[in-house]
Design a protein that fits this description.
Distance between the termini: 58 Å
CATH topology of the largest domain: Immunoglobulin-like
Strand content: 35-45%
CATH architecture of the largest domain: Sandwich
Number of helices: 8
Number of domains: 4
Helix content: 10-25%
């Protein structure tokens, strides 16, 4: 009996050891941390949520006691000893709205129908020196003259009625309440047609006393950016007050607000990409010594106040000694003192084509300053780089030699004597058969048109059904290609286009993900597609080994086989 108990205990212990790594791996699917656990109401914290192994967006709970004033996301792909991993990093900048011990509830993510969650996080918040949180007014707005002692009243206003196109405008809605309400009100903001409005609205409440009557004032502020010049009309905001048992709902609405949007002046510099606000530019390289064909990393960051999401990207400088490739980019935004600001970063791979002491050309970027009413140009300092090796020259293939001209005349054939014409044409059966030829041509044309229409209607279906065979056959030959990584990238993109019957070239990772999700492809399979494309892109500019090529070919073949089950 003792031996049986010992065997059972050993078995359970062994199973526990085997299950522990799986449980640990499961717990690491999603993690959440904050940059600090003790803050004041004047400060913000950064909540970082990391999702490992899959391309899935986490589900935030209700963040009681916090306002989300900024967010960013990025995907990090790493290759270590031939093993590739993907990691999604989501960051949220939180502004505490009350003091005490605040709890960030578990954040979850769903993978293949299974839900994974983080542990709750506690943050200690103490009262700061500022009377209100960043992004909100320091003092309550003066009561409107039209209030006139009403129990319920709404109004809306903007901080600037004649902004430039692309300049920030803050639209503020206020609800004055001097009576208790029977239920939850419904806030219905306007559509903001002609205005960019992708920032979460800010909200605050305070009490005022007007003519001896106390009001609870609720303010909701929207950050807007005009996208067109001319008159832009902001429609009324509506507030639905629920009625009682025998009373219908009451609708309050503000007056419309008109904006006179000024166009940007003429004479914009060539490096102007639509940035309106105030910005700064910084650059840095990872090294200043390299070899011909071995890229260096140039990091570029544009930061400041304005709508970074809507402004264009800077162009890599090129003086003939460098080839530039865009490797990664990211945008971080937050609201500080009611103004949208942040940073936009870029990572460029700069590959030298010549040897010697080279100089990375300066990066230029221009913006329009609405306060000064002028264009400003930012310019980085040139960076010297020592490059070993010599330029690779290619000798173009010589065109074929055209055949030699000749003046020789060909011998003429002898002319035979004209034979007797024989019976007349109308007396021959072939003459009458020729009358049937037009009818035959009409019938043949109709049949040909029907076949062509059928082929055109089923072209996408045939192309889709053959895409897998073509891709697998091409992948088996890709290892022999001069640039196998570029060939794999081309094959996979072509396969996706033929299966989806839609252009994929030029789409971002998010665009491809959205397109594949509409066809029901799982998050794990989509992540593997992005890993293959990223590995192929990285392999084009890094020293390649046979094992790296073989690993990419096997991984891509597996992805194509998996996609076939969905597409």
């Amino acid at each position: 009996m003792k031996h049986k108990i010992a065997i059972i205990l050993i078995t359970l212990f062994t199973l526990g050891l085997l299950a522990a790594p799986a449980l640990a791996q499961q717990a690491e699917v999603i993690t959440a941390t904050v940059d600090r656990n003790n803050v004041t109401t004047d400060e913000t914290i950064v909540l970082s949520v990391v999702v490992n192994g899959v391309n899935a967006r986490p589900e935030l709970p209700v963040l009681a006691g916090f306002n989300v004033v900024g967010s960013s996301q990025s995907t990090q792909i790493s290759v270590i000893n031939g093993d590739m991993s993907v990691q999604g990093v989501h960051q949220f900048r939180l502004q505490p709205t009350q003091t005490g011990v605040l709890t960030i509830d578990p954040i979850s993510v769903t993978v293949n129908g299974q839900s994974f969650s983080t542990q709750p996080i506690q943050v200690q918040v103490t009262q700061g020196s500022a009377p209100s949180a960043p992004g909100q007014p320091a003092e309550p707005a003066p009561a409107p003259s039209t209030l006139n002692g009403q129990e319920l009243f709404v109004e809306a206003a903007v901080d600037k009625t004649n902004p430039y196109q692309g300049e920030q405008v803050t639209y503020t809605f206020r609800f004055y309440q001097a009576a208790n309400l029977p239920g939850q009100v419904s806030y219905r903001p306007p559509a903001f047609t002609g205005l960019w409005h992708d920032v979460e609205p800010m909200q605050q409440s305070y009490n005022v006393n007007v003519d001896g009557r106390a009001y609870l004032v609720t303010e909701v502020s929207h950050i807007l950016f005009p996208t067109v010049a001319g008159e832009v009309m902001i429609e009324p905001t509506k507030l639905i007050i629920p009625g009682g048992l025998w009373q219908a709902d009451t609708t309050l609405q503000t007056q419309p607000v008109a904006l006179d949007v000024q166009p940007l002046p003429a004479g914009a510099p060539l490096s102007f990409k639509g940035a309106v606000g105030k910005f700064s530019l910084s650059t840095a390289v990872d090294k200043q010594e390299t070899k011909v064909g071995e890229p260096i990393t140039l990091n570029v960051e544009i930061s400041g106040q304005g709508n970074l999401s809507a402004m264009g990207d800077p162009a890599p400088a090129n003086d003939g000694n460098w080839r530039a490739f865009t490797n990664d980019s990211g945008t971080y935004t937050e609201v500080v003192n009611g103004r949208l600001r942040g940073a936009k970063s870029y990572e460029w791979l700069m590959s030298p084509t010549n040897g010697g002491q080279l100089t990375l050309p300066a990066v230029e970027y221009s913006y329009f300053d609405p306060d000064a009413g002028v264009y400003e140009t930012l310019r980085s300092e040139p960076v010297g780089v020592q490059v070993e090796g010599t330029a690779v020259t290619y000798t173009p293939a010589q065109p074929g030699t055209p055949p030699a001209a000749t003046n020789e005349l060909r011998p003429m054939k002898a002319v035979t004597a004209v034979k007797d014409a024989g019976p007349q044409l109308v007396q021959q059966p072939l003459f009458w058969l020729l009358w049937l030829l037009p009818l035959g041509l009409v019938v043949g044309q109709v049949a040909h048109d029907k076949r062509q229409a059928h082929l055109a209607a089923t072209a996408d279906e045939r192309r889709s059904s053959q895409a897998s065979q073509k891709a697998e056959k091409a992948l088996k030959q890709a290892g022999k290609h001069d640039d196998p990584f570029a060939e794999v990238q081309r094959i996979l993109i072509t396969y996706l286009e033929e299966k989806l019957n839609s252009s994929v070239r030029g789409l971002t990772s998010d665009g491809r993900t959205a397109l594949l999700k509409t066809r029901g492809v799982s998050d794990r399979t989509i992540a593997n597609v992005e890993i293959c494309l990223a590995q192929a892109e990285a392999g084009r500019f890094a020293p390649a080994s046979r094992s790296n090529v073989d690993d990419l070919l096997q991984r891509t073949l597996a992805v194509v086989e998996k996609l076939e089950s969905y597409l």
